[in-house]
Amino acid sequence: MKVMVFGIDGMSPDVLKKVIDYLELPHLRKIIKDGIVASTETVFPPSSAPAWTSLFTGTTPEAHGVFDFFDTFLLRKGIFSIDRTLSSVNLWNKTVWAKASLLKKRVLCVGVPVFYPAHKVNGIYIAGELLTPQIDRKAVYPVDVYKLVKDFGYEKSFNEMHDAIARISTTKLYGTRYEIFSLIEDITNNEKIKFDIFRTLFEQNEYDLSIFVTTAYDYISHYFLDESNIGQTAKVMKPYFNALDNFAKYIISNLDDDSILFVVSDHGMHTIYRVFLINNWLRMKKLLIPREYHIKNLNITHFQKKALHILVKFSRYLHLDNVLRKYVESKIKNMGRAKSFVDAIDIENSLGYCLSYSSYGIFLKQKKIKQRLMTELKSLKDDNYNNKIFNNVWSYTSSEKAPDIILMPNKGYTISPLLLKGENILVDSNKISVKVADHTVDATFIAYPRDQYSGYLPKNITDIHDIILENLQK
After folding, report:
1. Per-residue confidence at 300, pLDDT binned at 50, 70, 90?
2. Quick one: 369 and 246 in the same domain?
3. DSSP of 290-307, one letter per residue?
4. Minimal CA–CA distance to 113: which of 56, 189, 45?
5. Are residues 429 and 411 part of one domain?
6. 14: helix, coil or strand?
7. Coil vs helix vs strand at 110
8. Residue 330 contacts by C-beta under 8 Å, 6 or more apart in sequence?
9. Do 168 and 62 sit in the same domain of this protein?
10. pTM value?
11. DSSP per-residue letters across 407-422
């Protein structure tokens, strides 16, 4: 049987259904109506790098060693470089496309995150921008495909993705509705280019396994997913959702009687209201010694945001708004990178710290305190709403790369490594961040059409790897 995989980074099944209904997206609606839809649990940490690696290798982060976008073995020691992102060299032979190639199946992979550089497959592989330093000859196999990629104008890298995220933050803070819409259209256009490459290659040959992954939903929804007003979310992100529906139209129109489609995601995404300041908590436990604070006063920060908003509006009349925005953009970009957390903490004299948003984890120098901290974290409650803050507090025992404690917040909550002067450990998200949504455990699995699938529903995204291979060999 031929297998097609359509990956949507960060998509929760319930959010997908709501958006489909609101925008009346006919082709995605058909997939939902005539397919088997399930919510499946992601891995811990629920971050794109470990999650996609787990989904496409069928192994846990403890087995494959990917826990973050960056080298966590070095990060534990307080060593950070944007150039020291992960490499797929040691993972390639575990992937579903490598195993399909060994089975003499022809494969086409476009836009897959994390796996760079490209290795030899029985077909074509083109890396996605997530963890790809640049779309060059190393990002594609075979190398002669690079000309096609270049001609289409697909050139976004991991650094440029960081830039786009900073641009989203700034535009949401200070941009007009038109500017927000234009930015989302611009981001969507890159996904369209990727899909045009996929479509062109798909039509040139026969493939047994075809994989296309779009990552833009993840970083757009961080800033615009409001589940209390799904209509507004759908309107703002309409260019992207329309593109998704067009991708779906092409894919289902090219399924024959011996084909099956799996729509999958690496994790979910839900609206957040409260932020747990993990490094503040560690500081108050006298485990972390700060060098400096990212935020010294919440009220001043809130005032600065409002003042900047007025200043940007005024600067438009003086044609200085681009200069001001670039300054704010650079500040946001630098604050979001692990280096800003490394610089703010006295690593040498601290016993515990969190150094990146995406690790969802705490590094400890004294293992004997781990169990006590885990017990305390599990019992933490938000007194304002009488809710438990964490859905799960997790520990991998046999990997030196893993954070010693990994936190999975409940819906409505997230964690932040930002250091805030004072005793606050839990604050309203709108006071310290432009983000309105963050990762959750509920990933998407859809098998389409229903009558083509007789297998089990995956309990975890690691099961999807085996499901793909099993159907490929039917």
Report:
1. very low
2. no
3. BS--SBS-HHHHHHHHHH
4. 56
5. yes
6. helix
7. strand
8. 166
9. yes
10. 0.91
11. EEEPTTEEEE---BSS
Find out whether 295 and 421 touch, Cβ atoms under 8 Å. yes
CATH code assigned at 217: 3.40.720.10
Q: Which of 142, 218, 197 is nearest to 440 (CA)?
A: 218
Instruction: For residues 390 and 319, state if they share a domain.
Output: yes
Exposure of 20 by Cβ count < 10 A (0-12 exposed, 13-18 middle, 19+ buried)? buried
Can you give the residue range of the structural domain that contains 69? 2-269+438-472
Instruction: Let me know how many helices (H) and strands (E) the chain has, helices first.
Output: 19, 19
Q: Do residues 61 and 468 lie in contact, with contact meaning Cβ atoms separated by under 8 Å?
A: no
Please report which helix (H) or strand (E) contains residue 415, including its range: strand 413-416
Q: Check residues 339 and 369 and name the one with the higher pLDDT.
A: 369
Both tokens of 86, joined, read 């992960």
The CA distance from 357 to 47, in Å, is 9
The answer to whether residues 74 and 405 touch, using CB atoms and an 8 Å cutoff, is no
Do 306 and 362 sit in the same domain of this protein?
yes
Collapsing DSSP states into helix, strand and coil, what is residue 443?
strand
Q: How many residues does the chain have?
A: 474
Q: Are residues 129 and 43 in the same domain?
A: yes
Do 473 and 37 touch, CB atoms closer than 8 A?
Answer: no
111: left (phi over 0), alpha (psi -120 to 50) or beta: left
Give the separation between CA 440 and CA 123, rounded to whole angstroms.
Answer: 34
**Is the pLDDT reported for residue 303 higher than 60?**
no
- What angle, rounded to 10 degrees, do the helices at 177-204 and 216-224 form? 160
Pairing status of strand 123-127 against strand 107-112: parallel
- Angle between the N-to-C axes of helices 13-23 and 26-34, in degrees from 0 to 180, rounded to the nearest 10: 130
How many CB atoms lie under 10 A from the CB of residue 203? 8
Specify whether the CB–CB gap between 402 and 72 falls below 8 A.
Answer: yes
Looking at the fold, whether 144 and 279 belong to one and the same domain comes out as: no
pLDDT score, position 56: 97
Q: CA 213, CA 155: separation in Å to the nearest integer?
A: 16
pLDDT (mean) for 251-273: 97
The encoded tokens of residue 373 equal 């901290």
237 and 278 belong to one structural domain = no
Start-to-end CA distance of the chain, whole Å, equals 5
Asked whether the beta carbons of 110 and 118 are under 8 A apart, the reply is no
- pLDDT score of 337 more than 80: no
Nearest to 252 by CA among 34, 472, 17: 34
- pLDDT of 26: 98
Q: How many domains does the chain have?
A: 2
